Amino acid sequence: MRPFELTAPAAVGDALGSSGTFLAGGTTLVDLMKLNVLTPQHVLDINGLPLRGIETGDGLRIGALERMADIAAHPGVYPAISRALLLSASQQLRNMASIGGNLMQRTRCTYFRDVTTPCNRRVPGSGCPAITGANRMHAVLGTSEKCVATHASDVAVALVALDAEVRLRGPHGERAVKLTDFYRTPGDTPEVEHDLHTGELITEVVVPRLDWADRSTYVKVRDRQSYEFALCSAAVAVDVRDGVVADARVAVGGVATVPWRLPAVEAALRGAPATEESFAQAASLAVEGAEPLPENGFKLSLLPRTIVRALLEVTEGSR
């Protein structure tokens, strides 16, 4: 880890416009600094800022500095969000990690985290060795010839499924961005991962009210039971009336370069009977446009099965 300057702004306004790196829980930032993947000269500890609070009245509002463990345990938080948080990391990390920091975490691609190897996200133009190298954990959706790294966050998948937005505050004022628009697929600029401008800060996460979001879940498939990133995951919310799907929300993780919403699957579910057969037919659309690599082609069959499993779990008793 290289030397750096640490300051702690006393007010949100004092933090805005800085070219420094924000420190919240530090569960990602500190790791990457130790590896010299990130070498900020100035780090701003924002834990003293008034960016906390959870409101569950008309929708859901979560302060950016709320810890993952506290959000997961809060009554009124939609099940898909709570479950995604509980299936993330370890209890110790969930006690430290903030929701804002979780949404901003960097990829766990081993090439990105190894400074002795090329990586277009870390050093633009240096190459992507994952394309021809070890790529079992990598993406099949939203990829480019520049990058195939998956997005690491579990809860971002659930939030994308539920139409969440992030509220941002910067030196030029405040704005709100849908989480589906906040993340950027790599294209030709994999180093640009999100729509956060220099000096801007995530202040809160807002999930609009959805009266049937209590019928939601998050299913995570991984190599081991705990403390592991997803090979494939699915966040779903389903409104079933008289055995027919009236509406649905579906997003997936572990298979794409960003949390991946599946509008075609949602459209196929609407008006269909809430049966395993119709779920499978709709879920088959999830792999449209997928580009598997030599070691991760199994995700093309794992992805639809994971969606079906989540749909069956959330509709049990209403079919």
From TrEMBL:
Keywords tagged on the record: Oxidoreductase
Highest taxon listed in the record's lineage: Bacteria
Residue span, FAD-binding PCMH-type domain: 1-212
Classification via PROSITE patterns: FAD_PCMH
EC annotation from Swiss-Prot or TrEMBL: 1.17.1.4
SUPFAM superfamilies tied to this protein: CO dehydrogenase flavoprotein C-terminal domain-like, FAD-binding/transporter-associated domain-like
UniProt xrefs under InterPro entries: CO_DH_flav_C, CO_DH_flav_C_dom_sf, Diverse_Substr_Oxidored, FAD-bd_PCMH, FAD-bd_PCMH-like_sf, FAD-bd_PCMH_sub1, FAD-bd_PCMH_sub2, Mopterin_DH_FAD-bd
Pfam families registered for this protein in UniProt: CO_deh_flav_C (PF03450), FAD_binding_5 (PF00941)
Range of residues in the leader sequence: none
GO molecular function: xanthine dehydrogenase activity
Protein name: Xanthine dehydrogenase YagS FAD-binding subunit
Species of provenance: Amycolatopsis thermophila
